[in-house]
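Notes from the 1:1 (GR / supervisor)

We went over the backlog. Supervisor wanted to see one worked example end to end before approving the batch request, so GR pasted a single chain during the call. The sequence is below; no edits were made to it. Supervisor asked that the structure be written out right there so they could see what the output format looks like.
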Amino acid sequence: MTTTYKIAVIAGDGIGPEVIDQGIKVLHKVAELDGGFQFDFTHFPWGCEYYAKTGRMMAEDGIEQLKQFDAIYLGAVGFPGIPDHISLWDLLLIIRKSFDQYVNIRPVKLLKGAHCPLANVNREDVDMLFIRENTEGEYSGAGDWLFKGQENEVVLQNAVFSRKGTERIIRYAFETAKKQGRSLTSISKANALNYSMVFWDQVFEEVSAEYPEVETASYLVDAAAMLMITDPKRFEVVVTSNLFGDILTDIGAALAGGIGLAAGANVNPERAFPSMFEPVHGSAPDIAGKGIGNPLASVWSASQMLDYLGHENYGKLVLDAIEDLLIENTTLTPDMKGTASTSEVGDRLVHILTETMPTRV
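Structure output shown during the call:
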């Protein structure tokens, strides 16, 4: 019997629809070559263009509509004229919080054929897995704006670290490191943030006692940013807060070939709600419609979706296909010094999968 996975697609703005189409193309090909499962994609027109027409980033009952799906595939959100805090808070963060997608997974891995700007660094030295707390912390949305427009105007932005939220993300990271046989590094800023980050470090130490087999390290975020560049090999599995994870993974993207190769997963491990998969890059409105957006991050996030759905062998196969394409160095978009179109990259990946799948699976 064929399994059907119901996937909600929010292609979003700018190059979002263009890159998402290539990920869908790849997922369809994997399903076709396997024959035991298939994808049923339902498209939702939400994003900044929808906001311009309706005053909302998504339908009023959007969360209820999305609950029925196995996963969500997101393109990119953001467009000139729509404030970034609206495009972010009224779509992406609502989904993350409503579906308790408290684990954000961002691989920072230098694939064969990808360019690293660092000198004297071996490819194997850049292989990190960032596990970022994804629903509270610095992005909790708590605060106030007092005396707006007056001389004594004051804004308060509160970071919220609950025992439950902090412990579960750190425990998830320990379980991941244990499963992979790798070290775990915690990144905080306890010397300056004397409540939230002292608490983070305390919880990390408490949970660490339950995993004596996992080698651990702990760094302040500023030192970690430096060490990611000067000694990246010391980082394997990394756990950190919402804000720090957001910033450091962009540094990681630069190390691992650029933002066009940066993928991300927003996961509810308990599977009470659908998880969401997205490229990390923005909507790039300056090149939207030109057919030159890089789809590789979108395809990589599709491979993460395959992992989540229990098809890790195909997730790896898709990642291998991306690596093969980079090694060939003939079908790349302009941001990677190539001349290929977005769809040509997708077509080439499908061709590579068709050629290699029988021998690799």
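Supervisor's comment: The longest helix spans residues 16-34.
Batch request approved.
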